[in-house]
Predict the structure.
Amino acid sequence: MRRILARLLLLLCLVTRSTRDVPAQELPLQTLQLAPGFAIEVFARVPGARSLALGPQGTVFVGTRDLGNVYALVDRDGDGRAEQVRTLASGLQWPNGVAYRGGALYVAERSRILRFDGVDAWLQRAGQPALQPTVVFDDLPDASGHGWKFLRFGPDGKLYFGIGAPCNVCVRNDPFASLARIDPRGGGLEIVARGIRNTVGFDWHPGTRELWFTENGADQMGDDVPSDELNKVARTGQHFGYPFCHEGSVSDPRHGKDRPCSEFVPPAHRFGAHVAALGMRFATGPSVPAPLRGKIIVAEHGSWNRSQPVGYRVVVVDPTGKERETLLVSGWLRGERAWGRPVDVELLPDGSLLLSDDGAGVVYRVRFDAPKVKKG
């Protein structure tokens, strides 16, 4: 009973400990530790900032979850700070996922996908009424458990998103516990991969075009089991184990007898238990600093049900497995309290990195200051 009460108190601290109403200049950025050569600053204050998407004109679109809003951040002078934070849509149901394509913003709600046309023109005109969406797809489950979705366009032009399990550990039929896609021009739902408890971040390898995704492991199996995962889809239809097998080698106490771990695709990387690995991006492009180039950047949202909290950091993973996981940013966790919770990452053309934080209500910009070479 004492352990249960301690966990409840920890959860209360982590949920209520928010700096959303603190001015940007008062955020304790000095408590953050960064990899050598990197610096962090505030790009914009955005309540409940979750998933990020970048438009071709530099506009940053931000989804939220509980607040029901979608924002557009505009940095017109290119100084690394957004001068405008405009509410593009409100009153939506968990509009976590955002993706831009062809002048339109696509938004993933809990049970449907929306499209907001003409967002660039709308941003050019102040005082305009809110945009009205077109429903692209509305045949998704309405379950609240893991119902928030990450959304991205794939190399094939289709919209990809996860459909989480509506529980901690349970057996459910398609489309639950899957990674799915639709053609935004019309058509039905296609399951890309199964056995995925909940993914809120994925990206495509720039060379192989393989789809890589983060996955949150199950709760209530102990402090150190099972690990959150980084997985890759080599072909459509692969199964990654849930709910029968966790982290590639841990048989589920209830369902493991039905199917052994040997049947499933093992993870490419294990982050550790309960770190809540969410948004991820491959760091590619000529402007990406050398320490990150070709690596995967992953935001760990942080634990909520572990006796000693973990996560609350941004890590760098080598997809080849030749190098160990390294830290890019940490320090949101101070003792057993966290003042911020990283959610998603997005690369800018200049090689800097945007990072959302729904705990502090902010989008940061992480930049690399190359060491100056002394002359003579």
Observations:
- Residues 1-22 have pLDDT under 50 and may be disordered.
